[in-house]
């Protein structure tokens, strides 16, 4: 179990207000985030982690490498 610095019980679960359950997302958003590897279809996750992974993916895809 991952630890959460924002909840009193320090576990990343539904008791934390930052936790996002896959059931909370609509089907399109869940499928899109699963396809790029940000969200797991079966397990929820921390909204800060989801945001960080989404932004890093966007930066990675929009960065042009020069050779």
How would you describe the overall organization of this protein?
The structure is a single chain. With 67 residues, this protein is mainly alpha-helical. The protein has one domain (1-67). It is built from two helices and two strands. The chain has helices at residues 27-35, 47-62, and strands at residues 19-20, 45-46. A two-stranded antiparallel sheet has the order 1-2. It is flat. The N and C termini lie far apart (42 Å). The mean pLDDT is 78.
Q: Which descriptors would you attach to this protein?
A:
67 residues; mainly alpha; two-stranded antiparallel sheet
Averaged pLDDT: 78
Report the helical percentage.
Answer: 25-40%
Total individual domains: 1
Shape label: flat
Beginning-to-end CA distance, first to last residue: 42 Å
Order of the strands making up the biggest sheet? 1-2
Topology:
Blueprint: E1 19-20, H1 27-35, E2 45-46, H2 47-62
Antiparallel strand pairs: 1-2
Question: How would you concisely characterize the structure shown here?
Answer:
By secondary structure, this protein is mainly α. It has helices spanning 27-35, 47-62, and strands at residues 19-20, 45-46.
């Amino acid at each position: 179990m991952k630890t959460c610095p924002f909840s009193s019980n320090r576990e990343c679960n539904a008791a934390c207000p930052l936790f996002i359950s896959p059931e909370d997302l609509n089907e399109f958003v869940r499928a899109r985030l699963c396809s790029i590897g940000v969200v797991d279809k079966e397990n929820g996750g921390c909204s800060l982690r989801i945001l960080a992974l989404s932004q890093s993916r966007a930066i990675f895809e929009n960065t042009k490498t020069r050779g």
